[in-house]
Structures are given as structure tokens and as C-alpha cells.
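Case study 2.
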Amino acid sequence: MRLPLILSFFLMTTAISSARELLVYIGTYTKTTSKGIYVGRLDLETGRLGELTLAGESVNPSFVALSPDRRYLYAVSEGAGSLFAGKPSGMVNAFAIDAKTGLLSLINHAASGGKGPCHLTVAPDGKAVFVANYSGGTVAMLPVLAGGGLGEPTSVIQHEGHSVHPTRQKQPYAHSINLSPDGRFAYAADLGTDKLYTCRVDSAAGTLTPASETTLAPGSGPRHLALHPDNHHAYLINELANTITVLARDPATGTMTALQTVPTLPDGFTGSSTTAEVAVHPSGRFVYGSNRGHDSIAVFGVDAATGKLTLIEDVSTQGKNPRNFSIDPTGRWLIAANQDSDNLVIFAIDQKNGRLTPTGQTITVGIPVCVKFL
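Prediction:
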């Protein structure tokens, strides 16, 4: 498995590097100076991010996702109201991408199938968008229509239950939804119930069907999930416990089994902190997770045989509250979005050991909370 993975990564990075530049989209909260979704160009040779331009106006587009063909962008709209089946619902916006400028044109919007949409992803075939609704505790499947627009949800699953945290786990809080590479399974992390839910996806019928559950330690607060390129492992970051859980994945059944849980904070830290984002390096050799409060990114090495993690370092994000970060497809650059200091910070990634080095470049933007490479 190891040689094919490295070869695939090398061929991918060679192809992408020939393009020299990539568009980068920034989702924000529009509570202060931001007006929506911003776009800039990342120079893959130097790691320099060009000036940001307002790509499309939107209310609190706190998480965005791109279609596989790179023609459309989808964004949750936290705080924007809609109705679904006669009940209050959040909203998802669909945009067309101008291939030359990266600017966005609104196509339409659709109900998210629950309150407080916070995360979304696009099916590998581009035919559906999946949304996690935080305060509603639901996940939903929305069809992509001809021309990239969205239809109303065809399937909604309501999570049930609670866990031990007295204020954060009184009810379900669906925090993210991810798809397997073949699009057959959806994985929903629920902070409120301490569970990762696996659902079968029927693209033709437009349905999600519960398949299995993975229960985390009480008080973990699972938030985001990142799949390893080997298709057999995944990494779940736990917001309340400040940990990452290593999972073994059965590609045939979609079942996830916990193998290891490691802390994201350095020994001796006694302050208040919660985790946010998790990502796997394109090579599969490193895993990264963000700490909000400690304001750092934890860097881990991955055991090629077991998928288990060993801490390498914790690196300051040079800002406050790193809500999100993203690694470019070549694996050379990482952009951290510091929500409470209104800045993006660019890091170089050492390809041998995964360590992060600040490039010295900082970009100002109002309340950045999501970074996506086109």
C-alpha cells in the first residue's frame, strides 16, 4: 500500500504544480467588516497569497465546499432563515464560479433541513450536497440540479440523545458530514451525543440510511473528520476533550472502529482550549489539528502500518482562535484562519518531517472561518 500511495501523491503534486497558482476561497462571519466569501491566488512556488477580493456576498458563509468539476461553490448561511416541511431551517447557497476570475454568481438557495447549518460536503460525483445542521442536530442530503443549483432536501436524519457535558451536550449537535471516496457512505460527527454516525448513501433514491455508530469517550465532543488517502483510516478531532481519535475504516461496510486517542495540547498546558479542524497531509504521512485557546496547530506523524499518531510539535498560529485551516493539494503550504484576530497566516510544510514554518505572510480579513483550495 505504501509505494502506490507515495507514487500517486507524486504524480498529483507534479500535475498541480505545473499550474503554478491555485484559487483559495475564504468563508467568513459577516458580523463586522466581512461581506461574504473572499478569493485570492496562492503562488505554489513561493507560498504567497495574493490580495483577497470579495467573490460573492453572503450572510455568514462559515463553511464552503467545491464541486468535483470546480464549476460550483456551495456555502452554508448561518443565521439566514428558511422553512423545510413547515419547520424553521437554515439555508445553503449555490454559486457558479467564473473560471477566469474566481468570482461567484448566485444560482439559488435551498433549505438545509435543520437549524444552524455549519458544515457541508459535495458527493464525489457532484450530484448531491450533504449538510450538517448544528443546533438542529440533523444531517441532510440535497440534490444538485442541472446548472449547479440545489433542490430541497430529499433525506433528513434527526440525531437523538445527549452526553455528559452539562452545557454543551444537552442535545444532539451535528457538527460535520463527510463522504467516503466512493460516495457510498456518509459520516456525521455529533458533538452532543459523542457519536460518529455512518449512513449508507443511495444516490439514485436520494436517501441516507443509518448503518452503524461509533461511540466516543463521554465528554469527547466529536467535531470534524478527515479520511486518510489509504481509504482504511480516518481521524476524528474531539472539540471538548482536545483529542484526536484514530479510526480504522472498513471500505466494504463503512464501519469505523476506534484504535487510539491522543491529546492535541502539549503536556503542562492548563489554560482553556477547544479543538476545531483536522486534516491529513496529501502524502498520508502527517495529521494536523487546531487548538483554539492554546492557538496552535498540533502536528502528528502517522504510522504507515497502523495509522496511529505520534506528536511531532505544537506550532503557534500567530493569531487567536484558529477555527479552520487547509493544506494545498501539493502538500507544501498550510493556511490557518484565525477567527478572533481577523487574519490568515501561511506556513511552509517540511515534506520530510511535517513541521510547520511561518512564511512571514499574514493577510487581514474579517472573521475568517473556512479555507478551501480550488
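The first strand starts at residue 21 and ends at 28.
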